[in-house]
Amino acid sequence: MTIQWFPGHMAKARRQVTEKLKLVDIIFELVDARLPLSSRNPMIDDIINQKPRLVILNKEDMADPAATKEWIAYFKERGIESVSVNSQAGNGLDKIVKAAEMILKEKWDRMRARGMKPRAMRAMIVGIPNVGKSTLINRIAKKNIAKTGNMPGITKAQQWIKTAKNLELLDTPGILWPKFEDPEIGYKLALTGAIKDSILNLQDVAIWGLRFMEDRYPSRLEERYGFKQLPDDMAAVFEQIGERRGCLSSGGGIDYDKVTDIIIRDVRSMQFGRLTLDIPPKKA
Ligand code: G4P
User: Against a cut of 0.95, is the pTM above it?
Assistant: First the structure.
């Protein structure tokens, strides 16, 4: 399900996350490891305010491992703890509990010092659509409690998923909107399938993807499509890919829509290998 983010929806989503903030000790901010900045909500710092937070880079299996390391270092330099996981396979979930314990250690120590009985940490997952919130909740719950595509606005009683470890997780994630303003971010979100295919011109998305591959992973581009360098004339590129992959229209010419589809599908299905589309900023 894709949510159309009108200003009213944004305000409502924000209100719902804000309301639930007081129920939890820590926020798990889920992002796509291929897009650790582009898949963040633009107002997240403002929304979660001072609440302790762990950034979870999900879909690590699809991201460039070297870049993931750099992103974790990037967050750390800014005082934000982060871990990378693969929620689909259930890899790395222990890291989440360990990091949360570390982040909340002082608070828990203070509670103990005041004679309070230690209790489980309470957490809630927030993130833009498609970053894997429901998959992670299901993995943590080890059964299908969270339905994919929860719409903001549907109210129901809060349920806590009690894990075997010392963590309780709200069963419904906070769904926040992505960054829409920057066209480059739009292309990245579209290329990875984070936003609906009808939102942007897909041919533009595919062309952006090819240029990105040329810039960042040229040998993989050459291996897959046979281009060492892309010519200025992108129509020629589409024609060559179309010929190689048999994308003919009924009239006998190249079917550009099919080629577009192939390029986007190749990125999403990891035919180019593990890619990180947000380039980690160089250290100053
Ligand atoms: P959301 O609640 O944040 O909207 O995301 P959701 O869990 O629905 O996940 C979105 C898509 O991302 C799903 O694929 C899901 O399987 C996939 N996914 C989630 N976590 C991971 C991960 O760590 N690695 C990989 N490779 N994929 C992940 P889908 O194609 O929409 O559905 P399906 O393939 O599960 O049927």
Answer: no
Q: Which atom of ligand 1 lies nearest, measured to the CA of 131? A: 3
Reduced to 3 states, what is the DSSP secondary structure of residue 279?
Answer: coil
Closest protein CA for atom 16 of ligand 1: 88
Phi, psi of 73, rounded to the nearest 5 degrees: -65, -40
Neighbouring-strand partners of residue 123:
26, 169
Examine the pLDDT at 154 and tell me if it is beyond 60: no
Torsion of CA 90, 26, 63, 267, to 10 degrees: 90
Q: Find out whether 31 is annotated in a ligand binding site.
A: no
Residue 151: what pLDDT? 47
Which is the CATH superfamily of the domain at 7-170? P-loop containing nucleotide triphosphate hydrolases (3.40.50.300)
Residue 212 tokens read as 């990105």
The dotted CATH code for 201-269 is 1.10.1580.10
Share of the chain above pLDDT 70, in %: 93
DSSP 86: B
Closest of 80, 88, 84, 86 to residue 69, by C-alpha: 84
Positions of CATH 3.40.50.300 in the chain: 7-170
**Ligand 1 pocket list (CB less than 6 A):** 58-59, 61-62, 86-88, 127, 129-135, 148
- For residue 222, the tally of other CB atoms under 10 A from its CB is 14
